[in-house]
Specification:
Layout lengths: L4 H7 L10 E5 L10 H8 E3 L6 E9 L2 E10 L3 E6 L5 H13 L14 H4 L1 E8 L5 E15 L14 E7 L2 E6 L4
Antiparallel strand pairs: 1-6, 2-5, 3-4, 5-8, 6-7, 7-8, 7-9
């Protein structure tokens, strides 16, 4: 039978995963601190994504026909949205991080950000189940911000909190399944 609600419900384990049960944990390079930006980001990160990846295709022509071979894996940039509070701790840390990589005025890198190990960091997205247990973890390896979006200001925008997006480039991600029970 094509329409069977009971069969559908039996396939939806634990009533389905919920997109609003997550947290982001991110280390910041030492030159991007002081402040408690890493701790605050866990609470102020409003949206994030479970990462994706793409395996490239290498087409080769053979007797007039295209034959496809597996290429290399690539990872698209990762974007999060952050709520802004009046101390700007997270925003300031992100601005210092980007400025350490490449300054506004002189187009140079700080000595403390001389190599990838000093200007990149790791981040983790933890996806929670409805009972509060971690059901999946994604670790981003070697990330750094490459786009810090503006914050829109508007006299007519009442009863709302500022937010902005940050886009990170990273080397790769790793996933770990956690206990569901």
């Amino acid at each position: 039978m094509a329409f069977n609600v009971s069969e559908f419900r039996s396939q939806m384990q634990f009533d389905g995963a919920r997109a609003n049960l997550f947290e982001v944990e991110m280390n910041f390079p030492s030159f991007a601190l002081p402040g408690n930006a890493a701790r605050k980001l866990r609470f102020l990160c409003k949206t994030a994504q479970i990462p994706g990846s793409t395996v490239g295709v290498v087409p080769v022509q053979y007797f007039g026909r295209e034959v496809k071979f597996v290429g290399n894996r690539t990872f698209a940039d990762w974007t999060v949205n952050v709520l802004n509070d009046e101390d700007f701790v997270v925003r300031n840390a992100l601005e210092r991080w980007m400025n350490g990589i490449n300054s506004h005025r002189f187009n140079t890198r700080q000595a403390s950000a001389a190599n990838p190990a000093s200007y990149s960091a790791d981040a983790v997205v933890r996806h929670y189940g409805k009972t509060g247990n971690v059901i999946k973890t994604y670790r981003f390896i070697g990330l750094f911000p490459n786009d810090l979006a503006p914050i829109d200001l508007d006299w007519g925008n009442n009863d709302s909190i500022e937010e902005y997006s940050v886009t990170f480039a990273y080397q790769w991600w790793e996933a770990a399944a956690e206990s569901v029970v």
